[in-house]
Amino acid sequence: MAKKRKQAPVPRPEQADKPATLADLIRPEIRDQLKAQAKSQAEAQRTAEEARRLEERKKAEEVRKAEEERRNNDFAYLLENSKLDWKTYKSSGE
To answer: Considering all CA atoms of the chain, what is the largest pairwise distance in Å, rounded to the nearest integer?
Structure first.
């Protein structure tokens, strides 16, 4: 049997060829700390946005309820928007 030749390892480009990034320059502990801080700030911002939307929704609901109550107390509005079909209210026992 013939011996198999081992292929020469492919030379990899060294780190010196690539420009250094900020992540490469700082210590891993600091990088992890900055990532955690960014994540907590994003979470806080998301929570604040959700609270603002909830508050807007509550205000819109209050406005709608106030308008509905105002209309229910307005006799002219009720008269214009009511069905005047007396047959639906007539009892069938007569």
So the answer is: 113
